[in-house]
């Protein structure tokens, strides 16, 4: 059992997951499954963005879905109305997400806890209204159609499902790698100190506003780039993409997987996505399934699947540590006695 636990928490497990992602198109029963997995990877990138500001920094951003929609609309409008190619528009989507995140962050992050959450909820609703009502810019309720797909290179054509799947997988791996580096850096430890207590972090000399804004900007950049990828694959977007329900979907993925963990966003997104596919024929009753599931999860696994596993493993290792220390003392004592008698 201990070997299994150590393997699940080891870097080797991440290599196994990467290999599974690479091999998935070879074992998938249909191209539709590959398409669904690619969409799940896109949403996972957005969930990782929310994990930065909420999981690591402790600030609940309820406008995250709005920034996701901003990234999608940036690509849609730049490619359709202004004739940009996808990749320049993709970079612009990330920049726009970062700039707007900075502007919203320097205002909203002066508030704390539920006041911050309420403020960002209003921001998300404003984003939705602007997208729906500003017809001259966003095309209003008609949406944006015929969005340019990512340009391929050589024989690679990203308009095909499998090449696009590997493109999204690449960005997902890059996103996870970047967050793993951040979480182990001084910046990541600063975020965690802020999550624990603003007063404690401030007493350590941490600039609260600067670090909170940095976390917020990283979060909205992730959301914007994820939305840009979605626009590149579906090639049609509408105002419904900015609805608050998408933010709550992202929060659900994060809570199920494990808030503040490295692999939690991926686990939660994939699990909920495939459960949704399994009950697709009962779409009207979807919340009847997910409602009790979330209630049970919050009660018995408040840290999510990955968070609960890591907590349980930590307690198991801690409980075995005194026994090992006791056995080591006995062995040392026997050795000393043997040396004395010798």
From TrEMBL:
It is a multi-pass membrane protein. The keyword Transferase does not apply. Keywords: Cell membrane, Membrane, Transmembrane, Transmembrane helix. The keyword Cell membrane applies. The chain crosses the membrane at residues 7-28, 34-53, 60-80, 86-107, 114-131, 162-179, 213-238, 250-275, 287-312. One of its GO terms (cellular component) is plasma membrane. Residues 330-342 have a biased composition (Basic and acidic residues). GO terms for molecular function: branched-chain amino acid transmembrane transporter activity. InterPro entries: ABC_transp_permease (IPR001851), LivM-like (IPR043428). Its main location: membrane. Residues 323-342 are annotated as: Disordered. It is found in: Cell inner membrane. This is Branched-chain amino acid ABC transporter permease.
């Amino acid at each position: 059992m201990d070997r299994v636990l150590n393997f699940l928490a080891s870097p080797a497990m991440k290599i196994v997951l990467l290999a599974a992602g690479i091999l998935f198109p070879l074992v998938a029963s249909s191209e539709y499954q590959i398409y669904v997995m690619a969409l799940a990877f896109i949403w996972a990138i957005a969930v990782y963005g929310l994990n930065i500001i909420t999981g690591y920094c402790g600030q609940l951003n309820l406008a995250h879905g709005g920034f996701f929609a901003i990234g999608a609309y940036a690509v849609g409008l730049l490619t359709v109305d202004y004739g940009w190619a996808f990749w320049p528009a993709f970079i612009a989507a990330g920049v726009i997400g970062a700039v707007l995140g900075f502007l919203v962050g320097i205002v909203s992050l002066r508030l704390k806890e539920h006041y911050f959450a309420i403020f960002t909820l209003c921001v998300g609703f404003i984003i939705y209204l602007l997208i729906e009502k500003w017809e001259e810019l966003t095309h209003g309720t008609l949406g944006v159609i015929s969005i340019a797909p990512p340009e391929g290179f050589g024989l690679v054509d990203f308009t095909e499902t499998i090449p696009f799947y590997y493109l999204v997988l690449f960005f997902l791996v890059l996103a996870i790698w970047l967050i793993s580096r951040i979480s182990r850096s001084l910046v990541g430890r600063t975020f965690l100190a802020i999550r624990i207590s603003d007063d404690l972090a401030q007493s350590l000399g941490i600039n609260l506003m600067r670090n909170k804004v940095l976390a917020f900007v990283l979060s909205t950049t992730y959301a914007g780039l994820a939305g840009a990828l979605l626009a590149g694959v579906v090639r049609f977007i509408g105002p419904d993409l900015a609805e608050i329900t998408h933010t709550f979907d992202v929060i659900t993925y994060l809570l199920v997987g494990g808030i503040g963990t490295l692999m939690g966003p991926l686990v939660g997104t994939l699990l909920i996505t495939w459960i949704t596919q399994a009950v697709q024929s009962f779409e009207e009753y979807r919340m009847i399934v997910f409602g009790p599931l979330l209630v049970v999860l919050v009660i018995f696994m408040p840290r999510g699947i990955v968070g609960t596993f890591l907590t349980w493993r930590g307690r198991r290792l801690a409980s075995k540590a005194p026994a090992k220390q006791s056995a080591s003392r006995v062995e040392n004592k026997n050795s000393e006695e043997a040396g004395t008698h010798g």
